[in-house]
Design goal:
33% of the residues lie in helices and 18% in strands. It contains eight helices and 13 strands. The radius of gyration is 17 Å and the shape is globular. The protein starts with 17 loop residues before the first strand and ends with a helix. Belongs to the KdsA family.
Length: 272
């Protein structure tokens, strides 16, 4: 399991799911440290392996005036500070070949966005850094198609690939999770369920993506019951003011109760 190869990963012997969590985008140092500190406290208590998530840049926005970041190097340095402050690994997404080596100098896991997972040069560049590569399943792709993305990582000399399901397009303005795909993708690589992005409602007329955060626990519970290896949950202490994806984000105050419930379900499943 590639989880053990990640620097500073904790609680790997707990037989729990692992968690990728944090804000959608790095807005400033104070917010990143505040969110990380809270999640570290919760995951240490529940013995959940935790990787802090934050995008150093948002390149796939609906409108040109949408927030894209505070500066690449500035945001990456904040991710590095989070890692050093709390002794935890970090993950960020990359959008261009040139981002791979740059981001790899600061974080432990490189994430390929769902819209870009078929971009061969990008996947190869990420794999060649030697970092774990988290491949987000395209909203337009079948679970079976993800074996080719994983194979690109392997053909680039790495066996460090994960798959993340973030829902499939259902009409123009909704997403749906097909849980039949979880066991299929787990045949190719450790599989994560991106709970919050699966609840997005894209293509709104206002140009701002909507969401259904009220369904977060429903989707997360179903993921655990269906043996996902990890969960991806974006969270913020003030989602309404978050600069990206606030509409589908979990309020930080609700994270501990959610994870407590999920750990209980996990223990039940493991003991069956």
């Amino acid at each position: 399991m590639t989880l053990h190869s990640i620097p500073n990963i904790k609680h790997t012997a707990a037989n729990n799911f692992f968690l990728l969590s944090g804000p959608c985008a790095i807005e400033n140092e104070a917010m990143a440290l505040r969110i990380a500190e809270r999640i570290v406290s919760i995951t240490d208590k529940l013995e959940i392996p935790f990787i802090f998530k934050g995008s150093f840049k948002k390149a796939n926005r609906s409108r040109i005036d949408s927030f894209t970041g505070i500066g690449d190097e500035k945001a990456l340095k904040i991710l590095k500070k989070v890692s050093e402050t709390f002794q935890i690994p970090t993950v960020t997404d990359i959008h261009e070949v040139s981002h791979a080596a740059m981001a790899a100098a600061y974080v432990d896991v490189l994430q390929i966005p769902a819209f870009l997972v078929r971009q061969t040069d990008l996947v190869v560049a990420a794999a060649k850094t030697g970092k774990v590569v988290n491949l987000k399943k395209g909203q337009f792709m079948s679970p079976e198609a993800m074996k080719h993305a994983v194979q690109k990582v392997k053909d680039s000399g790495s066996n460090k690939a994960w798959i993340t399901d973030r829902g499939t397009m259902f009409g123009y303005q909704d997403m749906i999770v097909d849980f039949r795909g979880i066991p299929t993708m787990r045949e190719y690589a450790p599989t994560i369920l991106d709970v919050t992005h699966s609840l997005q409602q894209p293509n709104q007329t206002a140009g701002v993506t909507g969401g259904r955060p009220d369904m977060i626990e429903t989707i997360a519970r179903a993921g655990i019951v269906n043996n996902v290896d990890g969960l991806f949950i974006e969270t913020h202490y003030d989602p309404a003011k978050a600069k990206s994806d606030g509409a589908n984000m979990l309020h930080l105050d609700n994270l501990e109760k959610l994870l407590t419930n999920l750990v209980a379900i996990r223990k039940t499943i493991v003991n069956l």
